[in-house]
Amino acid sequence: MNTRPVISAILVVLMFVFAACSMSDNPLPIDDEADLLAAMGKINQEIGKVASQMKGQYSPEAFKRSPSLVRDLYAKAFENAGYSYSATLHQLAEEGFDVVLNPTRYTAAAFMLAAVLGGSDFKTEEVFSGQELKDVKDIIGFMGG
Question: What CA–CA distance (Å, rounded) separates 40 from 104?
Fold first, then answer.
């Protein structure tokens, strides 16, 4: 009996299980300026990669039609760089920050929200939902908004 197809199938399943288990719940390093800037650099590179891979999906016209598309692009770029957009939002909202006393956290929050919400006519509720929506509202409050 040829066991090769069975072994191959098992390996594929294990790869999917490993990938699902290793999905990043890793927030950005929001308290270390050097690490945060390095992570932001990685994410910026990933944004470019993801956007170019999905040219039709991530176009200026598509962004205008779909409020959550920029958020989805950021979340994918975070994931590709080894971080979690949602976990970072939650950590910032849960732990809070003072704009003057925690400039690194402010930088992280501004980085995460500026492209997603900045310059758009969309309401926060059109871009985020559930826990993320609550977290974003808390973060905007910390930022003085």
Answer: 12
How is the chain split into domains, by residue range?
25-142
What's the pTM value of the predicted model, to 2 decimals? 0.77
Asked whether residue 12 carries a pLDDT value surpassing 70, the answer given is: no
Q: Which two tokens stand for residue 31?
A: 């308290």
Q: Mind listing the pLDDT tens digit for each residue in 53-78?
A: 887 777 777 777 787 888 899 999 99
Q: What is the largest CA-CA distance in the chain?
A: 69
The candidate with the shortest Cα–Cα distance to 105, out of 51, 35, 33, 53, is 33
- State the CB neighbour count (10 A cutoff) for residue 140: 15
Q: What is the rounded CA–CA span in Å between residue 69 and residue 36?
A: 24
